[in-house]
Amino acid sequence: MADSTQNGPMPGGAGGGAVQFLMANKLDTAMWISRLFTVYCSALFVLPLLGLHEAASFYQRALLANALTSALRLHQRLPHFQLSRAFLAQALLEDSCHYLLYSLIFVNSYPVTMSIFPVLLFSLLHAATYTKKVLDARSSNSLPFLRNLLEKLNANQQNILKFIACNEIFLMPATVFMLFSGQGSLLQPFIYYRFLTLRYSSRRNPYCRTLFTELRIVVEHLIMKPSCPVFVRRLCLSGISFISRLAPTVA
């Protein structure tokens, strides 16, 4: 009798455990839903199945949903808001604050496909992690096909994070190009530079800093070849020196 009771179906059917898990973690569930919505809107922007006009609105919706997720995550990390310099300094150390700023930078700008990929991929990775927890709460062997997809996504997490960091870096010259092409504002490159310095100094995500180092090594290797013209070598070395001076000090 004890065994049959223990192994029997959970109250409310097979999904009863998942529902209880979702209700017990309401803030995490809200972020999960907003991340799924971000993935949905981002996908409809990248693949404009409903037309180009609708794609622009999905671009804004994706960034607004990401801003909501980032604000919820920041509240989870720093629940007691204080209007002080110390609280602001602590908030700027959080990755969620970085991407709240990121969303605000691009939400009213000209839609740029490159700018949506970090939002899409971060939301996808975090949503996949929480989806696996929901599946585990439902049943240890439920939906094996979806579990397999989530495992493949998790196995490529490092490559995805490097791709995101690459987008973060190359968006800096893109904002300057947008300014000169009349599609960006004068303040956007300066605000984005501040965002990039925050990403470079991130305690939780070192991929931006790592990718800067890797790019420098690759460029230095290429320009030191005898076939490289002298003026190109000097130009690249000057660029590397300039970027290195702009890099913030990391503790």
TrEMBL record:
Keyword set, alphabetical order: Membrane, Transmembrane, Transmembrane helix
Topology of the protein relative to the lipid bilayer: Multi-pass membrane protein
Example of a GO biological process term: membrane organization
Highest taxon in the source lineage: Eukaryota
One matching Pfam family: TMEM33_Pom33
Regions that span the bilayer: 32-52, 99-125, 169-193
Cellular localisation: Membrane
Gene Ontology CC: endoplasmic reticulum; membrane
Similarity comment: family membership: Belongs to the PER33/POM33 family.
Protein name: TMM33 protein
Gene: Tmem33
